[in-house]
Specification:
Elements (H helix, E strand, L loop, with lengths): L4 E3 L1 H11 L11 H11 L2 E2 L9 H10 L4 H9 L3 E5 L3 E5 L3 H14 L3 H4 L6 H14 L22 H11 L4 E6 L2 E5 L1 H4 L11 H16 L1 E3 H7 L4 H14 L2 E6 L6 E4 L3 H8 L8 E3 L10 H8 L21 E5 L2 E11 L4 E9 L7 H17 L4 E4 L5 H11 L1
Parallel strand pairs: 1-8, 13-14
Antiparallel strand pairs: 2-4, 3-4, 5-6, 7-9, 8-9, 10-11, 11-12, 12-13
Helix pairs in contact: 5-10, 7-8, 10-11, 10-12, 11-12, 15-16
């Protein structure tokens, strides 16, 4: 067996930040650069919470800097992106669709329609009606179907036509053609994919291999379980595929200091790791990361790598929240140093930080002050805010500095 490559946690952090495109900004923020960023990280997770800009816009902001969100929307409308269940509900390059089509085909064969089985009505005519309406009329959203909710026991209490749309989407009978103010419009796959000329010839084994190989590339250095989580694949399958890649020399073993579990790196990333270990690619940015940012999807990895305990407190009862509602980690260089709980008052064009909390042991210095002020100014500009308010901060000198610079 190949001797494991030694690496420190610092090496792994810097490689992860580099692979995720968080080490430096691109030279421009045009659509071509936005495409390159998505191809670099593989997928954008979607979420409907809008206390600030929605998550996928924030993921792009951290990597691209100030850009026009309409240009990101257009990547879906124009067919460069498609939507499917991946890590969660995500947008991916449409070039990846053939692999996901194999996954969808397997779901059709092996999974029951649990979404509709939970309803106490006959969904078959509703599903047929929804499908035929879209086939005849073109893209339609759920609000264009007149249907009432039946009782309180439905799937997330959606109206039956919404359940029918999601069922047809989940099993590949419909795709998302575009969105209007985040509202999905569904259409037939052959019409959504009409701009693409690719062969739908992938198997489920091709799909599994593809997700693990690409997951490893997007992360940098990771354990089998961490690689599996990137595209939400079975852990056992990930371990077997990585073992095959190891035997073929496509993946290399890494011994990370203080980690008990076996770690891996893609062979093609070895020169990059060596450059980082020699001192290259040092990240110097201060960024606010979406709660759903790709960098720290795996919560166990967050603690193994950064000693950073993070939970999305949106789903925590208010009385039990520790840091706030929409808590965004702060990345400073290659360290997760704290968190903010932001809110945008859109009428007053005001950015409110309900809380700014730095981790224990983080020292205040000029670089950190400048980084945080710059990150806040960028966040304000992106959201069209003209004023700033800091309600709570666990470091009094930092609060004074921010209020003087921004308040």
């Amino acid at each position: 067996m190949t001797t494991p490559i030694p690496a420190t946690r610092e090496d792994v952090k810097r490689l992860s930040v580099y692979k995720q495109g968080l080490h430096e900004r691109p030279p421009a923020t045009n659509p071509a650069e936005l495409k390159r960023i998505i191809e670099r990280i593989g997928l954008l997770q979607l979420d409907s919470i809008s206390v600030v800009a929605r998550s996928h816009y924030l993921v792009m902001l951290a990597r691209a800097g100030l850009y026009d969100p309409a240009e990101l929307d257009h990547l879906l409308d124009s067919g460069f992106l498609f939507e499917t269940w991946a890590h969660a509900m995500c947008q991916l390059p449409s070039a990846h669709y053939p692999w996901y089509q194999a996954y969808i085909q397997q779901k059709r064969l092996k999974e029951s329609g649990w979404q509709i089985d939970r309803l106490d009505i006959d969904m078959k005519p509703i599903i047929e009606h929804v499908f035929e309406a879209i086939r005849e009329n073109g893209p339609m959203s759920s609000k264009e179907f007149e249907s009432e909710r039946r009782g309180e026991g439905g799937w997330w209490n959606w109206k039956p036509t919404k359940v029918a749309l999601e069922y047809l989407f989940d099993y590949g009978e419909l795709m998302v053609s575009h969105r209007v103010k985040f509202q999905r419009y569904y259409d037939l796959p052959e019409r959504v994919l009409t701009r693409h000329d690719f062969r739908l010839d992938k198997s489920i084994d091709d799909f599994r291999r593809w997700t693990i190989e690409n997951g490893l590339r997007h992360i940098g250095i990771a354990t089998a379980n961490q690689v599996a989580d990137y595209y939400r694949q079975p852990k056992r399958a990930a371990a077997a595929i990585l073992a095959d890649m190891l035997e073929a020399g496509e993946a290399l073993p890494v011994a990370v200091a203080d980690w008990d579990a076996q770690a891996y790196i893609h062979r093609e990333d070895l020169p990059l790791l060596e450059q980082i270990q020699a001192g290259a690619h040092e990240p110097r940015q201060t960024l606010f990361l979406s709660p759903f940012d790709n960098l720290f999807w795996d919560r166990g990895r967050d603690e193994m790598l950064w000693d950073f305990f993070y939970r999305i407190e949106v789903y925590t009862p208010k009385a039990k929240r520790v840091y706030g509602y929409y808590v965004m980690p702060i990345l400073h260089g290659c360290e997760l140093i704290g968190r903010i709980d932001p809110k945008v008052d859109r009428k007053k064009k005001r950015l409110i930080l309900n809380n700014l909390h730095l981790e224990r042991g983080i020292k205040l210095n000029g670089a950190l002050y400048r980084g945080l002020i710059g990150a806040i100014e960028e966040f304000m500009a992106f959201h069209g805010c003209e004023s700033f308010e800091l309600l709570k901060c666990n470091r009094a000198p930092l609060a004074r500095r921010l209020n003087k610079a921004l308040g």
